[in-house]
């Protein structure tokens, strides 16, 4: 039997990896005075010298990774994620071999080979960020080659628009801008003692007064707490209608999350997953009943190929998947899934007072919510529908 070339797509010619600094996919890499680096509770706050600023302990040490995949006909797919120079090494010196010369439609096999070839030193963190970047660039290329948006490749939109909640320092302003809720960073952790706990609750109470009884308010704890502190915070915050408590403890402490989920007041949601990776990591969260909403970051969890598996697993467990940040990579997913009913929008304006594109200045044509919403038709462009801002100074440290 003659086996037909089933896609007619040009093969992959070249994979390239670059670093770029200043916001964008490494959204913590912001200038001074930004709300995202203003005394936010972290696991490093146990050391007073690292308490005021997350940049002081290197939250922005990596910078952005840009992956470009060029096909033989000159079409280029690209993606951005966090990873910087070490991720460039991984992409150019290890992962590129699984793509060059291949058919871009073979994303399952390519993912499998990237993951299992790095498993002896990878599995989570930086290596999976790099795999995610390559995977997203591949989906972008596939969409561009087929002339279809990624959401169409995923099965198509299941609703006409996306609805967003906003993460930032001013949920009250987010409400005026039409968002459905506001997630604030927690400012004090266990090192701040009872005084800090009271300040956390006072901030929440002030915001509740400003936004009224119905607007969603959430707290992002960025892995800073222990189960006892998180439980006390949740109980006190319940009086002020906290909708969810996010990433309260270490992502490795599945047992702690299971305990926290049992401890929080009925109706309050426990969310986590932005620093979790792959179907196996999320399986732990699901089977140990760690949370109510999974929040994979599309650029960190293994990319779109892996997110589809994570979301199917979550669906079978009756759980929602609301990806962390990740801009267009998240929007193209959320619009296609019933168990992803709304999306996050990270307010990257330094004072959270204006809507600016989440990955500014790296993407050209990055859509932003208007009145807290985005029409599905705004995503109707080939691939992820954005272009790379080539005016930025990009560096290719491991060119081959
Ligand atoms: C605000 C949080 O500390 C973090 O910077 C962002 C995040 O975890 C989220 O958007 O979720
Ligand atoms: Mg978070």
Automatic annotation (TrEMBL):
In this chain, substrate is annotated as bound at: 28, 54, 344
Q: Where is the Mandelate racemase/muconate lactonizing enzyme C-terminal domain?
A: 171-267
What EC number(s) would the UniProt record show?
Answer: 4.2.1.90
Q: Name one GO molecular function term.
A: magnesium ion binding
Cofactor binding remark: Binds 1 Mg(2+) ion per subunit.
Single biological process term from Gene Ontology: carbohydrate catabolic process
Q: How does it assemble?
A: Homooctamer; tetramer of dimers.
* Protein name, per record: L-rhamnonate dehydratase
Q: Which organism is it from?
A: Sphingomonas desiccabilis
